[in-house]
Design brief:
Layout: H1 2-21, E1 25-30, E2 38-43, E3 48-51, H2 62-71, E4 80-81, E5 98-100, E6 103-104, H3 107-110, H4 114-120, E7 145-155, E8 158-165, E9 172-176, E10 186-188, H5 201-222
Antiparallel strand pairs: 1-2, 2-3, 3-10, 4-10, 5-6, 7-8, 8-9
Amino acid sequence: MKKSYLMGVLFVMSALITLSANAALIGRLEISPGSGIYQAYYDDQLDITWAADANMNGRMDWYTANSWAAGLVIDGVSGWRLPNMDIDNSGGPQDCRFLSRDTLASQAACTDSEYGHLYYYGAGTTHGSGVTYSSPSPFSNIQSVYWSSTTETVGIRGDNAYVFVFSGDFGPLFALKDGLAYAWAVYSGDVGNVNVVLVPAAVWLFGSGLLGLAGVAVRKKAA
């Protein structure tokens, strides 16, 4: 029993040391070199990238929100999704407010919820230092209630999905999937490591011009 308890303490300490060794929201997908305006921010604690604009498409139902995120392309980067509130698949999200009645949730426990970690810890390692509706930096357009990708299927009202409220200290809640909430796009990993080849419009025009000339030449030869 004592050995098991000690191993648990060492695990939590190791996780906290790892988290505090990094702790930053790093700008990604700069609009133009040197502008300092980014379209996304990489969280090096959870190894995910958040869209800088937290309201790119308004309110929508859960199904539309998932489709929108899956089809989103930001500066050539695809593969976005809705945030996960139950990363360890334990059957329900970690309440990042408290571990127990009188104990604040540790950062290590809070990593189970991407929304919860952003709200309560953000780029820091202190509970309550995160990104909220009234303290949105470095993000813009943070709204109140957001869909997650995490479903809740045992509620008394049927099939629901978990939502997170950025305008108050509510913890994880759930709502009917055909209701309306906002959607925030997140990417698994660092978009700074994605190799995107963007073809400028001028190149497309030049290429299409060459194809047109080739077509004319073929028709003349055939005539």
